[in-house]
Amino acid sequence: MKKKITGCLAFLLVLTLFAGMYSLASATSFSSLTSDSIREKEEQINKAEEEKKDLQNSLTNVKEIKKQLEADKADLRNYVIQLDAQLEEIQENIARLNEQIAQKEAEIEETQIQLAEARETEAAQYDAMVKRIQFMYEQGESTYLDMIFSGESFVEILNKVEYMEQISAYDRKQLDEFMLNRQLIEACERQLLADKELLDETKAGVLAEEAAMQELIAAKEQRIKEFEADISNKAQAIKEYEADIQEQDEIIEALEAAVAEEKKKLLAASGVVLTYDGGVFKFPLASYTRISDEYGNRMHPILNVPQFHNGVDFAAPTGTAIYAAYDGVVVAASYSGSMGNYVMIDHGNNLYTIYMHASQLYVSKDDIVVRGETIAAVGSTGRSTGPHLHFSVRLNGEYTSPWNYLSQ
């Protein structure tokens, strides 16, 4: 009975000792024991909170943009240019947010791995501590005293006392490591919670930006239709439309002239000049819903005036891939108020293709492209009333029907 009571007292003594050591460590040295991993987790948690604040500040305020553009409504050309600039900023913001989503998903995966490893370590540490306490309980406190005072000399007793102190120090170190690992687990759990909240808010931010972009595109399309349909604006609208077409032709003719001059220099230097081999063009879109406007002479659908349409309009969802119809060199990848974002490709033998109203451009001037390479994405930039690709072909300085070269 006495041995059982003595054993219980030893067990309580060990627990009290562990509790005392933990209290001492917390009060004095745990700030210095905090590992780089825990400190890093705390910094990442704070960073996630800051990123959440920055996220809310970075989202597009559509009402404010519309208010700012209100003054430009009378000047349709300037209105379109300013609104397209806003759309470009939104697209850049969406791309940035998507990069943050990918990065945050990778960070969450890494933290989950760290958490799993820390939990495995905790389980192993806990098992070791239980076995240690069980051993001390079974031995009883008198065993340690007997071991110390069984020495035959004072020096031997001191050696045994030092040995027991080393054991005690080892126990204390194990407890410190256990509590430190527990802190790491708690930090990982808090970081996962903060990162998942930020990830959800960032995904919601992407949806909000996409909605803002669609709202502004719809506002621009509505404004163009209203302007062109207004009888009082009809004469001005026709004049502006003709000016837009003239601007397109001037830009394209200037590009053709620049290319011709460059080819002359190459020939003079015995260089190789690109030559069209007569192959069939690849259809310039990954997919499309319908032909919204054919090539050739027709009545303008809103202005109701005779007009030559110098390309084929393919209605397609925003973001649909636009392909290079044939091998060639990019002579322009730029923006204009009427064409929006556009690409022009030289295929040799004075044959060019032009791709207008893109939401994004993936090529730059002087890039060499091959048939079927993705060069842009469908959009509604410039003077456009819906997402589509305006596809034109020019031969020897004149527009020609794209159907002479296309294969669906």
Structural account:
The protein is α+β, with helices and mostly antiparallel strands. It contains 7 helices and 14 strands. Helix 1 (2-33) packs antiparallel against helix 4, helix 2 packs parallel to helix 6 (154-229) and helix 5 crosses helix 6 (154-229). Mean pLDDT is 78; it is low at 1-33.
Report the portion of residues in β strands: 15-25%
Rg, rounded, reads: 37 Å
Number of helices: 7
Terminal Cα span: 97 Å
Number of strands: 14
Low-confidence stretches: 1-33
Shape: elongated
Oligomer type:
single chain
Structural class estimated from helices and strands: alpha+beta
Query: Largest sheet, described in full?
Result: 10 strands, antiparallel
Proportion in helices: 55-70%
Mean pLDDT across every amino acid position: 78
H/E series: HHHHHHHEEEEEEEEEEEEEE
Chain-wise SSE layout:
Elements: H1 2-33, H2 36-58, H3 62-69, H4 76-139, H5 141-149, H6 154-229, H7 234-268, E1 281-282, E2 290-293, E3 296-299, E4 306-309, E5 312-315, E6 321-323, E7 328-336, E8 340-348, E9 351-361, E10 368-369, E11 374-378, E12 388-395, E13 398-400, E14 406-407
Helix pairs in contact: 1-4, 1-6, 2-6, 4-6, 5-6
Task: Describe the structure concisely.
The protein has seven helices and 14 strands.
Descriptive labels:
single chain, 14 strands, alpha+beta, 408 residues, two-stranded parallel sheet
